[in-house]
Structures are given as C-alpha cells and as structure tokens.
Amino acid sequence: MTLNFSKCQSVLITGASRGLGLQMVKQLVSNAERPKKIIATARKPEEAQDLQQLAKSHPDIHIVPLDVVSDASIDAAVKEVSSIVGPAGLNCLINNAGILIDTDLNTVTRDAMTKTFESNTVAPLFVTKAFLPLLKTAAAAGQGSGMGVHRSAVVNISSLLGSIQLNWGEAANFKTYAYRVSKSGLNMVTRCLAAAVELEGILCVALHPGWVRTDMGGPEAPLSPEESVSSVLSVISGLTDKDHGEFLSYVGEKLPW
C-alpha cells in the first residue's frame, strides 16, 4: 500500500498504547513519507512499554497522556499538543481509542451501554471539539487546495457493526449491543462534524478498519493488525473532498450507514 504523509506535518492518534493505535504509530514512523510529528496518546503512558521503546529510537514520536473520557485530561492534552505542533496546528486527528463489552440481549446492562457510549461515541466528539482550534489552524495554513491530511482531517475509527442497514440476517448474529449502538452513534457524530466544519476546510470521515486480530477483535479475526493498518493508513493519506462525510472501509469503499 502507498503511504504519503509528506505534506502532513502532524498526526495525533488516540489509544496508541496497543492494538491498532500502536500499529499505526509503528507503520507511520517506518514510512519514508511520514509526518514530521507523530503524537501518540495513551491513558497510562508509563504502562505502554512497547510505545515507550518505539519512542526512544524515534524522536519524531511524542507520547502524550490522554484519558478520552476525562475533560481535565483532554484539556491538558490540548495544551501539550499545542506546544508540540506550534503555529502549524494539527493536520490529522485519528480517534482510535475505544472499548468493547461483549453483551447480548440477555447480558446487556445499563452500565455496559453507558460506559461503551461514553468511550466510543461521546469521547471522540469532545476530543475533536477540544482540538478544533488546532485543526482549524492547520486547515488555514495547509499546503495546496482541497481537503485531506495535507490540510486538516478527522478520522473516526468506526466499525461495520455500526451499520444499521447491514444489521440484519447473518450479520445480526454479532449481538454486541453496546458496541454496535456506540459505533452507529459515532457514525452520526462524524456526519454532524462533517457538516459543521466543512467551510473550515476540515475533512471528516468514519473508517471501518476490518475485523482484526487484536485484544478487542479476538483470535478468529481474518486480518492481522499489520494488514489492517497498512490499508487504513493508505486510505487516510489519500483522502480528498469526495470522501468528506463518508463511512469508508479499510480499502476505501463506501459503506452503508
């Protein structure tokens, strides 16, 4: 897959301590056409040993503490990221952090629904809202015309399981009530954000990374983290105006809401 982030000054990835987030950092930093600043956030950076080791040998990786469900933590992260990116602003925000509590109709609880919705739907909205001034700065200062990571972009890592249209027949066998509802909500958040920031030149998309063999996806998933992230980053680096407000797969196909 082709990755070209050469005109992208900075990328911020939430939930970068493991899984897809960590793999994104690994592939970005090993890419010749990489962003100048890769900002990796983790709720407990001191426990993110793999990420810490990676940062030791790559000075363009900046680890920032961020608990996406804490307003105080979000505010502190914005201040730290502001000092990292400076007057250039933030080119690309990847809202990757999330949780999965496996529940069906018999086992789902109010607490599971609330916790999942807070992490997977509410948090990306408020993280984006907090970083909006930096995203606007980058959009105004970005290289070239049109939308994309060369100016400013928000990528919400969603899931095919959030598609209302596809939740029928065999696909409905994946019960995971809390997770599916939260990702449907995230898709609506993406559309609302896209409408709100379009005139600012900020691109917004929801992106399904595939079913991946991570702690969240489980061992039966068909895609390795390396395969998924290679495709995901290729799609992100190639985003243009035509993708704004869309729900895309990890190979760039438009998905039904």
Automatic annotation (TrEMBL):
The entry's cellular-component GO terms read: cytoplasm
Q: Pfam families given for it?
A: adh_short (PF00106)
* A GO molecular-function descriptor: oxidoreductase activity
Q: Which SMART domains does UniProt cross-reference here?
A: PKS_KR
List the CDD domains hit by this protein, alphabetically.
carb_red_sniffer_like_SDR_c
Residues of the Ketoreductase domain = 9-163
Q: InterPro entries per the record?
A: Fungal_SecMetab_SDRs (IPR051468), KR_dom (IPR057326), NAD(P)-bd_dom_sf (IPR036291), SDR_fam (IPR002347)
Tell me the protein family, please. Answer: Belongs to the short-chain dehydrogenases/reductases (SDR) family.
What is the official name of this protein in its record?
A: Ketoreductase domain-containing protein
